[in-house]
Amino acid sequence: MNDAHTLDYKDITARQKATWSTGDFHVVSRGIVGISEALCETVDPRPRERVLDIACGSGNTALAASRRYCEVTGIDYVPALIERARTRAEAEGAKIDFQVADAQDLPFPDGHFDVVVSVFGVMFAPDQEKAASELLRVTRPGGRIGLANWMPESFSKDFFGAHAKHNPPPPGAASPLRWGSDEGLEALLGAGADEIRGTRKTHRAYMRSIDHALEIFSTYFGPTRRALDAIGPEKGKELLGDLREVFERYDVSDDDTLVLEMPYLEVTARKR
Predict the structure, then answer these.
(1) Which end of the chain offers a freer environment for a tag, N or C, measured as fewer CB atoms within 10 Å?
(2) Axis-axis angle for helices 128-138, 182-189 (nearest 10)
């Protein structure tokens, strides 16, 4: 359990923002576009409904919703990702309101959105209770919530565990993987939502090889980049070795490429 009295969420958020600003998360996130498409199929936003994509990154889920002619807003606290999302929307001719904002302090009135979604986004907010409260606050009564969250098991447990082993999170901080468990979802959303359901799904990410995956993550994925910078070259080799073992463990390819099998939890709920 985290102790809210000892954690400096402002400082943790600033450091986390610097982490996700490192590299270029878009390069990684383009490999999980299918998860955003699947979430929109499940939550089923309709034309003219107001949709908010929290921690939208470079816009995968916001773009998927906009193709349904929804009125879409996307927020992220990394300005470079918001700029990339705007570029992608312009290329598609999509009118999406992308804003730089924090999931823990959403700049919208109560009950403003019909649908609120987040793909591997809101779960990383340091103050989980505040982020969950904000998510619920801006959803209208009867509105739908759709999330894709990593789970405290299988690939995500091992992948993020390798990072935590070499570059530990702040003492007392709750694991983001809490959002991928039934107990965590009930604790975070149960006070304001009904019909909370988690469905275990599996996504496959494709890369040229394990070496290619290590290059992608060490170059473009902020948490890996920052960990390598923080721990230095020798310990960095150990982290990359551990990540290689994780990739080998979850590789389901039958050739010399890499096909990562990545289970996740697709979550739906209805605002009370």
Answers:
(1) N
(2) 60
Four-CA torsion 40, 46, 47, 51, nearest 10 degrees: -60
| Segment 145-172 mean pLDDT | 97
Q: Where are the domains of the chain?
A: 9-152+171-206+263-271
φ and ψ at residue 98, rounded to 5 degrees: -95, 130
pLDDT category at 166 given cuts 50, 70, 90 is very high
DSSP character at residue 1: -
CA dist 130 and 102 (Å) reads: 11
The CATH homologous superfamily for domain 9-152+171-206+263-271 is Vaccinia Virus protein VP39 (3.40.50.150)
pTM attached to this predicted model: 0.96
Smallest CA-to-CA distance from 270 within 192, 198, 200 is with 192
